[in-house]
Amino acid sequence: MVAISKIATGNGHGENSPYFDGWKAYETNPFHPKDRPDGVIQMGLAENQLCFNFIKKWVMEHPEASLCSAQGVAKFKETALFQDYHGMPEFRQAVAKFMGKVRGDRVKFDPDRVVMSGGATGAHEMVAFCLADPGEAFLVPTPYYPGFDRDLRWRTGVELVPVVCESSNDFKITRNALETAYEKAKEANLRVKGLLITNPSNPLGTILDRETLKGIVKFINEKNIHLIGDEIYAATVFMEPEFVSISEIIEEVECNRDLIHIVYSLSKDMGFPGFRVGIVYSYNDAVVSCARKMSSFGLVSSQTQHLIASMLSDDGFVDSFIVESKDRLFKRHKYFTWSLSQVGIGSLKSNAGLFIWMDLRKLLKEKTFEAEMDLWRVIINEVKLNVSPGSSFHCNEPGWFRVCFANMDDHTMEVALLRIRTFMLKHNEAMVPQKLCRRSSLKLSLSRRRDGFMSPSIMSPQSPLVRAIN
Amino acid sequence: MEFTRNNNNRQLLSKIATNDRHGENTPYFDGWKAYDSNPFHPTQNPDGVIQMGLAENQLCVDLIEKWILENPDASICTAEGVDRFRDIAIFQDYHGLEEFREGVAKFMGRVGGNRVKFDPNRIVMSGGATGANETVMFCLADPGDAFLVPSPCYAAFARDLRWRTGLEIVPVDCKSSNNFRITRAALEEAYEKAQSSNINVKGVIIANPSNPLGTVLDKETMRSLVSFINDKSIHLVCDEIYAATVFGSPRFISIAEIIQDMDCNRDLIHIVYSLSKDMGLPGFRVGIVYSFNDDVMNCARKMSSFGLVSSQTQFLLASMLNDEEFVGNFLRESSKRLAKRHNVFTKGLERVGISSLKSNAGLFFWMDMRPLLKEQTVQAELELWRVIINKVKLNVSPGSSFQCSEPGWFRVCFANMDDETVKVALERIREFVHQGKEKDGVSEKSKHWRKQNLRLSFSSSRLYNESLMSPHMISPHSPIPQSPLVRART
């Protein structure tokens, strides 16, 4: 046995949870409308695939945005050589402008504060390295993105302390919950260095209201701890109420700006997770400087900076894109949630994100996480949908599931909805509204295959943590 | 409420954020200021400072540009390639595109003279070689552990290997007396010294071909290295990012080839690779970790999420590197052009009595300026360096920045400029040397310097400008864009 690091031999990468078992089902039997119509439909990936035709059109009309076209190749050499960690000025300017537009131009972002990172994954790790020492902690409201456990803790040695939010008040982040978590950390002898919020929220799909945000800023200011706002879903707010960014709040509330940092990315808002465009935007000069030095470990490919700079500096395109994207998300969300309600399935009222927070508490055999996992396996194996169980998001209450709706075409969506409808009618008639029951005469027999899904499995490529972010 | 920023920051930020291990606060950076405020341009600023401190490979970019125009389907933005746009834009699987891994594995094999086959399934991505080196350290060692690093070595190893990982570096001093060979004795000595100071040595990291020396390791040295690490059961990390810049004999031998013929624990062997030097694409951030240890490979792959290669770039390179004809032609032509450029410089310098370490690889040569030092000290080296920057107007890199134990050596890059600039640079050096000779009244026929007679007197007041003596902070708003650590790699 050769000695390697503790980091390498530990489980900090987060991939050994039973959560991953479900992915195997999808992997071995992925849905395809023609080739595999009975396969498992992927609803566990928070991807935004609704606007690609729009983007493709722009790309075709702007060959100069590519280093590889006749119109763009003159820039090839200087771009291929460009490895300055400040990033291309046009790129930073375009990103800063985009961030402003996404916030309705209510705030202006400074291109000199835009620092690159290896996706939002790299951004979070980088911020943790800048703000906390090993053994120190961040507070994180639950439920939260499972990747945080890895991104913030694995190589940094930083701890996470959950701020427990309850469904009884729609998972609001209350002052009480914050104080409780802070005290708990203190009791465990953990020095809290900051609070990380995701707004809009993954997995809830909700946004934080102004009062809550102000309260949060006051809290961190009083405790003199950092506030990290992960705003990677900012442009996915498709309906009222309007998104309020931390960048806006600090203009209204007196606070130490050295405590304020934003993590951003183009993976969700634009649907470009492959391009690895992560951004750290800090109001603290020392953090900007430090993060910039660290960005050497995960710069954005200059080829991609060039493309993005071109795309995002096209005001006409950006304005239309933002509107179009919201519109398509709105329609998809509306149709999906309405269809679910038709069969008695509710979800948390949401106006953002690429997913809904589905409420299946009534379907649980008992109010336990074990029952949640059982139900999950049924959904995967019988209904053949890969959704994400709430426990993987550290939700304190069993029965919630995150279901992604923006990563498939209309036809696949219909198939998914039909399967849900069928399942509800067959097994949960009590929950389905009466009028639908009487109309339907569907009888389907579903084979019950339970073998092989109880055991933890080897990491599969489509699993969420294989994707840098989901 | 009053907020006292600086004091607050010291307590508010991490130790990593407030220490100096990012390496940018060295006096070494002062010199870059001169270049940045007065960069050479053939027509607009012919008296400016010529950049010879950046190890960039600009000699074959025309070949790549030609290939790109002939292969529009390698781009997801052209009419021929745009149908792939969506699939590629959403592809974030940390295994990487299969064609990309295959292309890279094939390229690495080719560069190693096709004596080894690299397994595409062992190819793991990282944020450039910078990210690769850091990732490997995170996988192999714990905070406080150490790696032996033969000196002189790449300046930014101090940051890449230590900064966020908490590891330490123990230098293995190599001497010019035997051409900076890495001897078993030197390794043993460094190892013993570390162990007796209670420093836990977890491995050795070498760069082959060497930066800054431009030399390749011979078979004996490599076998001796493998035997050393195997005996001690410590890791061997080989940074082979200059593998394809070998332009003369002896040929490059990859560590992968050495272990084929040796009894050794392969779990101890790891390669770091990149396309930044061999292909001249540093902006594309293509770093590769290739480990023979399954656990390390799996761990590094999970860590690659922190620095994956942009799928747009993976797609382009997959196409390029799988074009065997292009690759063959590129490698041949690149070697030729590097050889020529290297020859022009080294011969040009020899003619004025300046020698350099005999080398056959890299994008630089290791220039011997020891005869010109007032005294054999680092201080004298830095003084000479300032003269070279301010008087000769060439930005070269002093050996002390590479932790060289002997003062007087300078790394001079030659592949990052066009032929005209080469002529200007050589002319300036010639001028400088002749001026020195004239002042001494030394005959022009003499090819060797007599140290004690050498007096360089200059009227330029910029020489001993106080601001150039002191280390300074690089602030967020007044960056030095051309500085080596600003570039992810030099």
UniProtKB/TrEMBL annotation, chain A:
Keywords: Ethylene biosynthesis, Fruit ripening, Lyase, Pyridoxal phosphate, S-adenosyl-L-methionine. Residues 41-420 form the Aminotransferase class I/classII large domain. GO terms for biological process: ethylene biosynthetic process; fruit ripening. Its EC number is 4.4.1.14. It catalyses: S-adenosyl-L-methionine = 1-aminocyclopropane-1-carboxylate + S-methyl-5'-thioadenosine + H(+). InterPro entries: Aminotransferase_I/II_large, Ethylene_sulfur-biosynth, NHTrfase_class1_PyrdxlP-BS, PyrdxlP-dep_Trfase, PyrdxlP-dep_Trfase_major, PyrdxlP-dep_Trfase_small. Transmembrane segments: none annotated. It is an enzyme of class 4 (lyase). Its cofactor is pyridoxal 5'-phosphate. One of its GO terms (molecular function) is pyridoxal phosphate binding. PANTHER family: 1-AMINOCYCLOPROPANE-1-CARBOXYLATE SYNTHASE 6, BIFUNCTIONAL ASPARTATE AMINOTRANSFERASE AND GLUTAMATE/ASPARTATE-PREPHENATE AMINOTRANSFERASE-RELATED. Belongs to the class-I pyridoxal-phosphate-dependent aminotransferase family. This is 1-aminocyclopropane-1-carboxylate synthase.
From TrEMBL, chain B:
Coiled coil: none annotated. Keywords: Pyridoxal phosphate. Residues 50-429 form the Aminotransferase class I/classII large domain. The keyword Mitochondrion does not apply. InterPro entries: Aminotransferase_I/II_large, Ethylene_sulfur-biosynth, NHTrfase_class1_PyrdxlP-BS, PyrdxlP-dep_Trfase, PyrdxlP-dep_Trfase_major, PyrdxlP-dep_Trfase_small. Belongs to the class-I pyridoxal-phosphate-dependent aminotransferase family. This is ARABIDOPSIS THALIANA 1-AMINOCYCLOPROPANE-1-CARBOXYLATE SYNTHASE 1, ACC synthase 1. The lineage of its organism: Eukaryota, Viridiplantae, Streptophyta, Embryophyta, Tracheophyta.
